[in-house]
Amino acid sequence: YVELHCHSNYSFLDGASHPEYLAQRAAELQMPALALTDHNGLYAAIIFYEACKQAGIKPIIGAEITLENGHHITLLAKNNAGYSNLSRLITRAHLSHDKGNPSIPIESLPQYIDGLFCLSGCRDSEIASLILQSRKSQACEAAAKCIDIFGKDNFWMEIQNNFYPEDTRLTHTLVTMAQNLGIGYVATNNVHYACEEGYRLHDVLTAIKNRSTLDDCRSLRLNSEFYLKSGTEMSCLFRDYPEAISNTLILAEQCNVDLDFSAYRFPEFPLPPGETVHNYLTKICYTMVRSRYEVITPEVESQLKYELNLIRKLDLSGYFLIVWDIMEYARRNNIPAQGRGSAANSIVAYILGITRVDPISNKLFVGRFINEEMASLPDIDIDISTNHREQVIQYVYEKYGADHTAMVCTYVTFQARNAIREVGKVLGMPAHILDRMARSVSHYRAGEVQEDLAGIDEFRPYFDSTPWETFTSICRQIADFPRHLSIHVGGMLISSCPLTDIVPLENATMPGRVVCQWDKDGVADAGLIKVDLLGLRILSLVQEVCEQVEESEGRKIDLAQIPHDDPKVYDMICSSDTVGVFQIESRVQMQTLPQTKPRSIEDLTVEVAIIRPGPLQGNMVNPYIRRRQGKEKVSYLHPLLESVLEETLGVILFQEQVIQVATIIAGFTAGEADSLRRAMSRKRSKEAMERMRQRFAEGARANGVDEKKASSIFEILKGFAAYGFCKSHAAGFALLGYESAWLKTYYPAQFYAALLNNQPMGFYTPEVLASDAKRHGVALLPVDINRSHDKCTVEAGKVRLSFRYVKGLGGKAIDAILAVRNSFPFVSLDDFYYRARIDADALQNLIMIGAFDSFGSSRRQALWQLGLLEKTSPEQLPLELTGTRVSLPEMVQLEEMKYDYDIQGLSATYHPMRALGREVLGNGTLRSSELEGIREGERVKCAGYVVTRQRPMTAKGFSFLTLEDEEGMINVILKPNIYEKYRQIFRLELIMEVEGTIQKKNGIINIIADRLSPLINQLGSARIPMRGFCRY
pTM here? Predict the structure, then answer.
């Protein structure tokens, strides 16, 4: 027996098993093959195909298709032509309807039938539904119509027995009808979960899908019979119809799809007459090389020739030209863009202007990007100003055609917080408890919910109950289940053939966007090339700062010409004054910068790479710092590695070094070494890893390296490779980091204005950035109805907040305000009310934050006046009501701060800590500025607003807080036992008091906390933004 109708969790809330587990279970049941028929999609086709191959069974690719009449049919691909037709059919179903409602008219099926089997479908099929309604003649007509479309050999009646009351009658009628029509019939079980116990999880998924509780959707839930049954079980169920079982083997034998897309090609780049693609690339490179290098040294010449030859061998010339063309479009349209990642190792990419980092002067290693033995095709990632990314994407769509381009998808999966909320709601748990739980977890993985909540006293009463066990069990099972499709941050497929031949496409939520049904891993496994067009806000910020400086000061900044050794900039960096500075603003970076004291772009490249899980987990950070400070002698893993590790003081910090170490120590080729790096970065079987270890040991032995030393080096590489950073990527980011630091140093007002305009970005919320601006002498001006714009602007060295920060004031309302104001400024609230005509709630918010204060009325008086205006009839002439005033008390500071935070998320005037005051905090509470004068080891008490909270996996149980008061930031460290004692306060409170002892080390001040106390209740109901967990 072969199951021909099976749903995985890629049927999105209608399948309760991973495709890999379904393949494994089918192999355990000794099925020779298994079909995957997810709803209207081939989302898991690649995953399922590979899983079946590994399990030793044949994969059958299919889908359950929704027809426009609402009924279902089951389609199976017989061959590659059938697969492509299925992909095209699914695309038609999605693109011709609104997102989330795919369907296809039955009249459109004939153009897609080649290479497909059609099964009549489950109980939701038209034929079965008509029989259940006792409309047998219409059912026969529907079956005959399907035979006319697919032919007798390709249309099969599908019978099922899931122990529903009508199943016996339905099966008998379907079999009789098939015999009368002269077609075959097959038994399926409409599988929705691999094993019988999976029905409980499926019940929960059904309730989530229908936004209901388990009790309220009882009629929609399946019973426990929709699991993957053995041949014996199915033969027993259909003992009266043995042909239904044997026919499944006949169909399975005829289904032979080979998902080999080696014929896939990037589109041909349009060439001048008489040119070949590689000759054209070569000419462009030799034309542009002098714009990058004043002197063409032998090293430059040699590397360029080597790479061009390698690109020709790998047939990648067209790929480079297409990416170059995208970058040229960006340049022509003044759109900031630069290549990132391993592509920056390439001199060809640098000469073409794709990347900004010189691989020669930075000693980059092209083997990390391309080599002769590449196991997969390279990716070139392009960072684009966020403000212009859509423009570039639309250029690619227009140039290569909608049929040949699509964005790569990503699957939004169940992680800890959404699993807690959605599973808990389905089980009927109280909403306020679920909210507390969701905000209490620190792990992303839903499978760790039980362990994460176990130590919290607040939830202890639930722990021993059956509902709690069910809840944590379901959270564990649902972990990483795909919930729905989303759009990848930048991956774009471009193909010479219509993409629908390979993968189905569907509409994205964003208008005008189409996504394919595979994520980046599926695309890579299929051997397709993608170009990542990634929005990077720092590029928008840098451009905006330069534009604001030119507008306000008449000075044009060319960042390509600024010095990269400015001592003032590095002094600021080394003092950890890096809030808002790209890549070096995190708490860990701020702790590290005063120790490493970077003074060059090369130093910053190391700084960007070192605060990553690889170096942190590999215990490489502290040795590097000690060696940098001269406290530890520089040593190397082996004398042969000095040339490779010299720049990082004997410590492995870059992915390129992994490749170079394997090449030097074990004699690997660049391709072999990169394959080793890739293998180490993924989960591999013990046997596969052991084979790699032996290959490494043999190569090391041949090079005269001691076996014990070789084994030690292999383990270091293995521990680092999964999380290491690419040097070329770090170098590109280091350059941007320096440029942002330079702008902050010399143009702080424009820098902070642009920073506030380009949120979210980095580690800090706007209110933290506003506080940092004030500490640098850049005052913030509140929203003003006659001075604010759609972006924050600079006024005499101060930053005026924009209308965008006002809750409820959308883009259309802002445009309306600015359009009317362009004629002449507003002179009163009445004037604004009658001319702007915006939503009353948005207008009230503007009043509450003081946008009309310049007219002389208090905020309460303005609210009173708005009430009078609202009562006037629209037919009445606009009358000036400013004379109608009442005596109302002014708002106090706490009220104004509350409305600022409720409506804007920040305050131009007040800091949350001001509301507390010394009388609330008590005697002995120190400000951040006073900690400098406290001696090491002394006890202190401080209070602040939580800026970041971190509990990194690399910190051996230690946890970290960054608090902020009006004068600066406070670093807090919690030992594991203190964290466990105060974990709820650590995770949930917004403002807290901390007691502990002072630690001073390398110019860094920390408080080693032994007590935390919440203070938020002192601020009433002000909705101050909650800070979640940060990674580093």
Answer: 0.86
